[in-house]
Structure formats: structure tokens, C-alpha cells
Amino acid sequence: MELLHSPFGSQLGTNYVPSDPDVTQIRQLLTRPKARVDEVDKEIKRITDLLENLQRERQVYSTYINQHEAILSPIRRIPTEILQCIFLRCLPTKHNAVMSSLQAPVLLTHVCRDWRAAALKMPRLWASLHIPIPHRPQKPFAYPSYPTPALPQLTEEEFQAYTQSVQRWEYKMQERRQIVKTWFTRAAGCKLSISITLWEGRRSSAEAEAVHTTIKSIMDIVVSYSHQWKRIEVLASHPHICDLLALPMHTVPYLEHMKVTCNPFSTSPIASGPALYRQVSPTGLLAAPSLTSFHCKLLPESPLSLPVNWAQLRELYFDGAASRSFDGTTLEFTPSDAVKLLRSCPLLVRCRMVVVQNSLFSPPVAPSAFNFSSEDEEHAAPITLPHLEYLSIHEGAPLQDFFSQLEAPILNDIVFTSSIPPYDSDSTSLVTLLKNCGPTVQKLTFDFPCLTVEDIQQCLSLVPKLTHLSLSSNPRERSFVVHQYDPQRISSSARLNNALLARVTPGLIDDGTGRKSVVTLCPKLASLSCKFLSPEFSEDALVDFIRSRRSEAMYRHGIAPLQKVHLCFKRPKQDVDVMKELEKENVDVHGLRVAVTYAHPLHKGVESFSPLLGLAPDALLPYPC
Fold first, then answer.
1. Overall number of domains in the chain
2. What residues make up the domain containing 511?
3. 515 found inside a domain
4. Which long-range CB contacts under 8 A does 71-80 form with residues at least 24 apart?
5. How confident is the model at residue 144 (pLDDT cuts 50, 70, 90)?
6. Measured between alpha carbons, how far is 403 from 462 in angstroms, rounded to an integer?
7. Are 298 and 265 in contact, with CB atoms under 8 Å apart?
8. In a domain, 512, yes or no
9. How many CB atoms lie within 10 A of CB 394?
10. Nearest-CA neighbor of 341 among 296, 400, 374?
11. Which residue stretches of 311-385 are H helix?
């Protein structure tokens, strides 16, 4: 390419204003370059057209090749038996299959004809189903901003929108009824896993019959397959729960797992007045001959009164019982009740329960330990659970005596929360539990504000094999029942500060003989998870903790390498980046997972210096368009 020279080179790119002679000279100077540009444009067009023709030709050949190579795809030649095994791995693992074309098994029937045929011929693929029944739309209403003797009538637009929403609900329920029927037909004779969520809202008696008829039509289909039930989970109001539990036990010969969650605040669609308590049938569903896993929540019954074959249970989850008056309160389940229940379940492997005493009031003085009455002296013998591996318990009444009786030789996973404030002079119930079972515990979860600092240190000293430690500050758990407290005493809730973290940070000391020894709690710890509602320990202390537990010197002294750290701070992010600090200090982070999250600076209760603080979202500003 010819190098272009310009006599105006020194003026190019400046604010120079050319004279009339210069203008004429510049125009003459550009004549030849403009002609060359036109020639180049024509050549570019020719080459571009040639390139486009070649690209179109290539696309034709590529399409031809791809279509034929698709026929050679190995997935097309996989035997049906292997394909069906792959299909099973596509099913959800944390819940039952859902009625969605975006998830298996329905999704698998939309790929091709062969896959659809294979899926439809596989009953096991259709052996689980989640059935959601949303509440029927309610008639809209609005209170006027001024006193009025009667509520305003619906406008035509409001009535039309309400009618359309009701029609859509009725159509969807009929559609789901047909889906449920078809789904269970495809499952053939397989044992079924079913979960049902039945939401109900308050409605007038005029709407009640239509809603009841619709719900009953779906439930009748589910009940007609009760002889195939293996797992059943139901969230519904008390009347629907009672109807389900009234099924004769001989109709569910294969039922192994049952979860019943009663919604005490939901209004029955067939009840004209307050909900009425109905006693559970002694020969109903709960007496199923093969039942080994039972989970109940807010059922208006004490567990001891339920006709469950406790002696064969391997899993028991009791999350509290609702009051029989359906007023939002809970029934008592005292430590004495817990003793009686666990004595009836010698085969338990997993257990969760909420122990509540005097839940309707706070006594003036809380006892340091629960004392059994003279009638319960026979319960002083040990509670032996030789197969128990997991225990989760919420303490709504002191459990020291209860835990002192417990014998669980292979218990390895404990979750403990409490509604009882900690005091310096009293030892927590968790210490009593760990004195009995601590040597075998590998996983421990507790709400640390319900313990004192001394309690935490003692608990951690009682679990030498601990590998997973999870600490949280969850007021929702502590507010599950009304606290039992002494108004004359001040609680001493622990704070997970730098000093406490230092107790689980390994360090070398001289034992006096010239040899080094390690001083730390939880030498086998591999995973630490903490969630805070206030600032606790610092990032620098965290870096020291991780560095020490990842050092080669500690490995040689028997300290297990830390594998996972998950922390959630309720404060803005600091200047310290934990992983960068570790890498800067040449700490071995291979295989280490560290996740540290912080609250957003604009969250309520979090310090913020944002220049946007106090500004409302645009959608809330009443400015004219």
C-alpha cells in the first residue's frame, strides 16, 4: 500500500482553520484517495459476496452431515433397560416428583417418541408425586378510608376479575385431578410416595360446598390407591387430617413413612363455625402394620395418645402439638411424657422432639432441673436406645434429669435448641447430655445464645471425636414456646468472640520436658458453620483459626485438617479477604472450602455510609410522570 503524504500533516488533528486556497488544495489532494476508496469498496463487496456464498454452501453440507451423524448418536442405541436406569437418576431426590413439564418424569416424555414410550412403560418412574391444592380465590374487599355503615359493592371490573380467577382455579383443579389419576395409573402396582399440600382460606358457606366437592374429588383418587402407599406426607387443616387418619389400617399394608402437619389456623371448607376436635381412630391409619417412620406437627393430640405401634418405629419426629381449642396455643409435652414415649420406641435410629411444659405462662422461678413426681419414680431407670444415631431436641422445660437417664451408645449427631435462658450458676442440659453421649458424637449443632461461655467450652471438651460443628443465633427457635425465666436473675448468653474461637484454635506449648504438645478443643474438627445476628469474632481471628488447623505442624500432632468453613456475619464486609490472606501467608488451601457472607449495608440494623441511605425506591415516589 502506497504511503500517503500530506502537506497539511502538521495541521491534522488540530483546530486549524484553512484559508480559501488551502480548501481548494485539500479538495484536489483528496481526489485520488477517494477514487481508490471506491475501488476498494467494490473489491470488498465482491469478496464478501463470495464469502457469503461459501458460507451458505458450508451450512448446507454441515446440516446434511449433522442430520446423519445424529442417527449415529450412541444414546439412540442404548438398551431400554439402561435408558430407564438413567431416567431414574433424573428424578428429584429432595422431594417427590412434581406436575411440571420442566422436570422429570414429565420432561422425559417430551424429548422424542422412543423416550416417551420408554418412560410410560416404567412404573417406577411414576411412583412419587407432589399434589399441591391452592386455596380457592376469595372475593376481594376493601375497607373505605372513612366510616360507612356497609362495605362497598364490587365494581364490574372487580367482579369480572374475581370470576375469571375462580374459573381458572376450577379448571386447574380439574386438570390436576386428571393428572393425578393418569399418574397413578402409570405407576401400576408400584409402592407410592405422595405429598399433599392443601391450602385453605376463609370463605363463605356459599363457596364451601363447591370447594369441598373439588378437594374431595382429588382426595378420593389418592385414597383409592392407599393399598400402594409407602410414604404419605400431608399438610392440611384438622378436618382433612382426621378424614385421612380415619382410613382403616388394613387399607395401607405397605405404609412405612407418614408425615402429618396440621394447619390449626386454616378454616375447614365444610365447617360453619369454629373447628371441632375429633379424636383419632385407634384402628385407623396411624396403626398401620408396617409404619416405621412417623412425623407429626401441630396435631391436636399428645403423642402418647396416638395409636402408633411405637415399638417398631425407627424414625420419630414430633414438632409440637396444637391446642384442641384451635386458638393458636400448644399442648404440653413434658419431660415425663418424653421419657414414656422414648421407652416405647426401643428401635429408634433418628428422633426429633419439642418438649414443652407450662407453655401458656412463665413461672416466677424456673426449676434448675425437672423433678419427676412420685408417680414417675419408676421412670428413674435408664432410657436405653441402642440404635439411636440422631437426636434433635428443643428444650421448653429443663431436661437435665431426662438427659441423665438417656443411654445411646452410638449417638453421633445432636441438634439442641432451648427456650430457657442460661445463668452462670446453672449448667445447661446439653452438658448433661454430652456427659453421657459425648464420646461418640461427631456432629453437633446448637443455638449458642442459650448457653453460657463456660457451657460451650465444657460441651466442646466432651466431644473429642467431633468433626462437624454448627453454631447459630436463631431467636425464632428460642421463641417457639414462652420462656421459663426468673425475673430476678440476669441471663448470661454466650458471645462467640475471639477468645472463644481461640479455644478451638490449636496451639503448641512446651510440656516441661522439652517436647511440644497441642492444646485445643475438638482436635478432629473438619467443618465449622456459624450464623450470627450480631458482630462476633473478627476476620483476623478467623484467619488464625484456619491457618493453625491447616498447618503441617498440627497434622503431625494429630490435628485433623480443616475442610470447610461457612460463616454468615450480620455486618458490612471488612477490609480483610480471608482466602487472600491465607494465600498470602502460603497456607495450604487445597481442598479447603471457605464461604464468608455479609449482610447488605442497607439492611435494617446494619451500619451504612451509603450516599443512597434514606432514599425511597422510584416506584414509591409520588412524582408526576
1. 1
2. 498-598
3. yes
4. 76/114, 80/118, 80/121
5. low
6. 15
7. no
8. yes
9. 22
10. 296
11. 335-343
Degrees to nearest 5, angle at CA 225 with 223 and 231: 85
Q: Specify if 549 maps to a domain.
A: yes
How far is Cα 219 from Cα 224, in angstroms, rounded to an integer? 8
- Rounded CA gap, 521 and 559, in Å? 10
Cα gap 504→459, rounded to integer Å: 12
**Residue recorded with cell 422461678:** 365
- Distance CA(320)–CA(329), nearest Å, equals 10
For the stretch 199-219, pLDDT in tens is: 876 555 567 777 888 999 999
Burial class (CB in 10 A: 0-12, 13-18, 19+), 238: buried
Distance CA 124, CA 114 (A): 18
Q: How high is the pLDDT of residue 192?
A: 97
The larger pLDDT score, comparing residue 507 to residue 484, is at: 507
User: Is the Cα torsion angle 115, 118, 120, 125 positive or negative in sign?
Assistant: negative
pLDDT in tens, 47-74: 999 999 999 999 999 999 999 998 888 8
**Whether the Cβ atoms of residue 522 and residue 460 lie closer than 8 Å to each other:** yes
In a domain, 168, yes or no: no
pLDDT tens digits, one per residue of 161-198: 889 999 999 999 999 999 999 999 999 999 999 999 99
- Cis ω for the linkage preceding 248 (within 30 of 0): no
pLDDT surpasses 90 at 614: no
